[in-house]
Design goal:
Blueprint (H helix, E strand, L loop, with lengths): L10 E5 L2 E4 L3 H17 L10 H4 L13 H14 L17 H18 L2 H10 L4 H22 L6 E6 L2 H16 L4 E7 L8 H14 L2 E5 L9 H5 L19 E6 L6 E7 L8 E6 L2 E6 L2 E6 L7 E9 L2 E8 L11
Parallel strand pairs: 3-4, 4-5
Antiparallel strand pairs: 1-2, 6-7, 7-12, 8-9, 9-10, 11-12
Helix pairs in contact: 1-3, 3-4, 3-6, 4-6, 5-6, 7-8
Protein name: Putative anion-transporting ATPase
Pfam families: ArsA_ATPase, ArsA_HSP20
Family: Belongs to the arsA ATPase family.
């Protein structure tokens, strides 16, 4: 689109104050996997954890289907660029993805998988008891830290601003409520909705009503971009559209703004509530589950692990309600793990 040939992995200047960085998934994957494979190969012979004995022989290309792994490495490179101090802003263009929220979900899903398959307390215990596992435990810990680091960056309203661009036709009208509910679920700090009239030959009046309702619900701005008279194949022509992006405003959203409070009782008889603003296009397609320290929220087939605050990790879910775009989940302490005060 910008009239340059990108060099994967290297930032290429395309104007006086903009550069293009194209990331090749396999190119990012190979060096990262080499480090992990080196840690595994250093274990030597003898019984180890299941599957570790064969991991060292797996080729990097075979890992592209491992859920979340490839996406994490892409996010890690983006994070490194964003925190390098070299750029005043980093724009991540997800327009070529069939489902951008799959990319956004990847770090959370991978972190949950790592900690379910090999929980951190077991990793630490294994490394202490068997020094040969220390390198593998450290490698898994680093991967998990990268997951959490990327998630913190994506949900930080002080550094990140998300903008949804949809066509103003029927497709955009159907997608926009879906994007709104998933942005809230993933704590993505949404700042604006941009309607692209140039992507459809028949803008719909009903789209404006849907966009206005979603924008008001989420407290974001809307902008309509008219069809251009010339091909958008140069940066200067792109700038003529007059599109400006709102900066981060520091206001958390969705699960990032979840509130926890004790509403009744005390000790093991207490009841806690966790609430956040959660738009739902179809409330009947909401599902809730629990896996360890994560609350599994499913909306229309999209499942996302929401890390529970420490006070709720020792609790059991006893109910949930959704009303007026607010989701409320109730918890009560699990007597088996709830700390008790020693008696005198």
């Amino acid at each position: 689109m910008v009239g340059v040939y990108p060099s994967p992995g290297q930032a290429v200047p395309i104007s006086a104050d903009a550069s293009l960085l194209a990331l090749d998934p396999l190119g990012v994957l190979e060096p990262a996997w080499a480090q992990f494979a080196a840690a595994v190969s250093g274990l030597g012979s003898g019984p180890t954890l299941p599957v570790l004995s064969v991991l060292g022989s797996v080729a990097p290309g075979e890992l592209t289907s491992l859920p979340g792994f490839e996406e994490l490495l892409l996010w890690r490179r983006i994070r490194d660029e964003a925190t390098s101090g070299q750029w005043s802003a980093v724009v991540v263009d997800c327009s070529g993805l069939g489902d951008p929220f799959r990319l956004l979900r990847a770090p959370a899903a991978l972190s949950q998988s790592l900690n379910r398959l090999w929980p951190r307390h077991r990793r630490l215990a294994a490394a202490a008891e068997r020094p040969m596992l220390a390198r593998v435990s450290a490698a898994v810990d680093e991967m998990d830290r990268d997951c959490r680091d990327v998630l913190d960056l994506l949900s930080d309203p002080h550094t990140t601003a998300a903008h949804v661009v949809v066509d103003s036709g029927l497709r955009g009208e159907r997608l926009l409520p879906r994007f709104a509910e998933l942005a809230a679920l993933t704590a993505l700090p949404l700042r604006s909705i941009i309607a692209n009239d140039g992507a459809t030959q028949h803008p719909r009046e009903s789209f404006s009503a849907v966009a206005s309702a979603v924008a008001e619900r989420l407290g974001v701005d809307t902008l309509t971009v008219a069809a251009a008279d010339e091909p958008i194949d140069r940066v200067v022509r792109l700038r003529r559209l007059g599109v400006t992006f709102d900066s981060p405003n520091g206001a958390p959203s969705g699960t990032g703004a979840a509130r926890v409070e004790r509403v009744s009782g005390s000790g093991v008889d207490a009841v806690y509530e966790m609430r956040w603003n959660q738009p739902l296009a179809d409330p009947s397609r909401l599902g809730l589950g629990r896996a360890g320290d994560d609350l599994l929220v499913t909306i229309g087939g999209f499942r996302y692990p929401v890390r529970l605050p420490s006070v709720l990790r020792r609790c059991s879910v006893i109910g949930a309600d959704w009303d007026d775009d607010e989701l409320c989940i109730r918890f009560t302490p699990d007597p088996a793990v709830w700390p008790t005060r020693p008696t005198a």
